[in-house]
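Students often ask why we bother encoding 3D structure as a string. The short answer is that it lets us treat folding as translation between two languages. Here is a chain of 342 residues written in the first language.
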Amino acid sequence: MWSRLPFGDGLRAELGVPRRSRRLASSPRSRVWRVELAGGPAVVKQSVDGPDAEERYARELTALRLGARSGTPLVPALLGADPGERVMVLEHLDHRRPSGDWIVGYASALARLHAVARPEDAGSLPRWQGPDGADAESFLGLAEALGVPVAPGVSGELDELVHRLGRAPGHALLHGDPCPGNDLHTADGVRFIDFEQASLGSGLVELAYLRIGFPTCWCVTTAPAPLLDRAEAAYRTAWHTATGTELHDDLADACAGWLIRGDALVARARRGTTDHLARIPNRDWKWGTVTARQRLVHRLGVVGLLTADRADLSGLSRLSTVMRRSMLARWPKLQPVPSQRP
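And here it is in the second language, the structure alphabet:
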């Protein structure tokens, strides 16, 4: 049966016979069970057949092995693997309800996760892929569809933004989807799970999640500025402690990059299928805690403020501010994104 526990002879010889298996909720891309082994509870995860199943499995396996380097646990321990069946057996972790200031501990753990990768790990995972020229064109097309004039220099600013993000230095271990739900708040600290989209690149593109509103996630939240400042300071401190280096770049480029990506308005299964920004004037849709228009209004506000003092993004700053104002005037019932995590 398709729901049969995939625990073959090799895993049984290594880990023993599993008992009391129970299916757990998971994405359509995987099947997950909780089982009892001689050493205690464990999680069995199998990547489901699909055109990218092998790649997803390989990325997660590699990321878990890299993450295990940390002196403080950041990922579940990998107890066993069966590559032929795309199965991994993981330590079971007990999740506790996060505190109100959860993003501070989250940011510190994220920095330590990013810091485990080394220059010599290049090639073990794909490089992070930022927005491209088509994303920039779609964003400008949305502005025109909303009746917002685009100043002559904005197209050039976006071209340079895409170029900078594509060449952003760094070899951080990027989770790929560091969302609420993929962070487990345990008695021993935050652990991250589900590394199917892991890559290497600049950690700033994931630190930006806190301000821009978790762009790849069903669960969008925001936080007061003082709490965001604490979380970002915690990230920078943890990064410096782990690497001995300072983070000198700001988050404007990373947040602007997430703003212009239409695929950051839909769940993973719908990405790469159409120009989602072009749909905004005629249709809104719900994904998780908010709608697409709510996501976009939030991101426009963030980018408008973050780029206000950037001479090389001044046109984008003004455009974002006016686009946000236009959307709120056109759809006055749009609500701010929630401040509380579900």
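Translate back mentally: The chain has a mean pLDDT of 95. Keep this in mind for the problem set.
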